[in-house]
# Entry
Amino acid sequence: MIMKNILHSFLSLFFPDLCVVCREKFIDGEQHICTDCLLLLPKTNFHLQADNRLEQFFAGRVPFERAAAFAYFIKGGSLQQIIHELKYKRNPDIGYFIGKLSGENIKGSEFIRSVDFLVPVPLHPKRQKERGYNQSLKVCEGLSEVTGIPVNSGTLIRTVNNPSQTKNSRFDRWTNVEDIFSLSDRDTFINKHILLIDDVITTGSTIESCAKEILKSEGCKISIYAVGTAN
Ligand SMILES: [Zn+2]
# Structure
């Protein structure tokens, strides 16, 4: 044990565990994000506000029960660094961690009271292989750990890869994501309330496309949740 600690301290000189936001070294017990940066995260608390900005954003685009996000995604802000770490730095643990934080935030609220399944926005298998994991699934796993709501990641599937998505305008992106999702079976979501989970909501076109596919299940209801929202 002592040897292990010495080795850890030695390695920390070269590969220190740093807060993904401020890059400061951790003090006892901190991991991924330091306490100071956690306290400064710009939480939305949209789950407590009916008719919040995100719900207004999706209104008329797709039928849904509620929509919320954990924090505001601001260019150059702390959540942008966290999401960057999650998507491009091969750090699935930060997804699980931020999922647990989100879970603590919405646990026990009306927002999730009747939810049957947490469903991550699926990645195309090719993209998932490149990244090594689906970041939204990692967030779901953290949320599930805290709330006890089961994850379903096998029913909603992505059938088309669209790597050029981020370069296109909103209209192009919308047409781009039409019909790229499908359901692997028609029964699982019947009469269920699905909480659809994404990492960040920007145009909302991916969520909209997923929701339309899920809603083909009879009697199914949708709510929407993301770690971050640019809206
Ligand atoms: Zn920090």
Remarks:
- Residues 19, 21-22, 24, 33-34, 36-37 surround zinc ion (CB under 6 Å).
- The CA atoms of residues 189 and 218 lie 8 Å apart.
- The radius of gyration is 18 Å.
- The mean pLDDT is 90.
